[in-house]
Amino acid sequence: DRESAAREVLVRVMVSPHFLFKAETVPATGDPSKFTLTDDGDLRLTAWEVASRLSYFLWSSMPDTELRRVAADGSLLKPEILVAQSKRLLKDPRASSLAHEFAGQWLKFGAFDQHDGVDTKKFPEMTPEIRADMYREAMEFFTRLFREDRKVMDVVTGDTTFLNERLAKFYGVPGVTGGEFREVKVVEYHRGGLLGMGAMLTKTSRPHRTSPVVRGDYLHTVVLGNTSPPPPASVPKLDESSLKPASLREALMRHREDPACSVCHERIDPLGFTLESYDPIGRYRPNDDSGTAIDNTGALSDGTELKGME
Questions:
Q1: Is 224 helix (H, G, I), strand (E, B) or coil?
Q2: Distance CA 138, CA 99 (A)
Q3: Which of 10, 89, 246, 302 is 20 to 30 Å from 181 at the Cα level?
Q4: What is the pLDDT of residue 290?
């Protein structure tokens, strides 16, 4: 029937690689002598293909009128025009897509505005508004990083972040008023860059407590780009649910005594311990709930000593 036929056509269209991906391919027909090759023998992109690639990378959307104009006259292939157009696109609000699609996927905060992994009975301060502000903080930080061509090391060593009044009060940072997000120096408040962002600190915590294992693995694999094998099936999962920070550290140290566990935990646990000064919803805490000073030190297997975000 007509409905089934239409459905079949739509399904075929939607599963086609040409529908799902932006791809440049060698034309199946045409005069090969007219194809332009690079010095490496690859097919050189046309101005229209460059415009499409640039726009979908920076905006996740189609080229605008200006980009189509320089594609049509071929000038986009000139290095100086390509650089100028790239800078223009980055200044546009649509460039925030780069922060969401690239940094958000890489650093796992892309869906944080929908994160529901917090025990809100224990942490009623973690409201939907604060969660949205944390997501916006990360988006503003990476949008500015790309737009202003800042150093990639600012991701881990930067001394600023982006706050509005509500999030600043949540973090304990004074002097920020109003609902607008602005760049704030926060190093004296134990923040700055990715490692001090509530989105990352909350997402790598358990619903009711911090998790040095999860945070350490995040730093080891996501930020530093290393790999961790899955835990051995024969080793029971460490129960962190009823452990306080001090006893959790002791339990993890015992866990590392097992040869099957030590290989990975010697790499990830020390990294996770350095973030213990932040509670499960990203607030700085010099002491735990019992008033005991937080131990935020760790030592790598090569003897390197770590302390906090230093």
A1: coil
A2: 8
A3: 89
A4: 77
Quick: pLDDT tens for 242-297: 555 556 777 777 767 777 677 778 889 899 999 999 999 999 999 887 788 999 99
pLDDT, tens digit, for every residue of 216-245? Answer: 999 999 999 998 887 777 666 665 555 555
Strands (E), 220-288: none
* Domain boundaries along the sequence of the chain: 43-91, 94-199, 204-310
Give the strand pairing for 305-307 and 297-299: antiparallel
Q: What are the DSSP calls for 18-57, one per residue? A: HHH-------SSS-GGG--B-TTSPBPPPHHHHHHHHHHH
Amino acid at 22: K
Residue 131: which pLDDT band, with cuts at 50, 70 and 90?
very high
Q: H/E element holding 11? A: helix 2-14
CB contact at 8 A, 154 and 193: yes
Read off the DSSP letter of residue 113.
G
The yes-or-no verdict on residue 36 having pLDDT over 70 is: no
Q: How far apart are CA 211 and CA 217, in angstroms?
A: 10
CA atoms of 58 and 50, how far apart (whole Å): 12
Q: Which residues contact 59 (CB under 8 A, 6 or more apart)?
A: 89, 92, 94, 95, 97, 98
CA–CA separation, 310 and 298 (whole Å): 11
pLDDT on residue 250: 76
Round to whole Å and give the CA distance between 106 and 154: 16
Beta bridge partners of 299: 305
Average pLDDT on 129-152 reads 96
Average pLDDT, integer, range 186-196: 95
- Which residues of the chain form beta strands (DSSP E)? 160-163, 182-185, 297-299, 305-307
Cα angle, residue 251 at apex, residues 201 and 223 outer, rounded to 5°: 30
Q: What is the pTM of this model?
A: 0.83
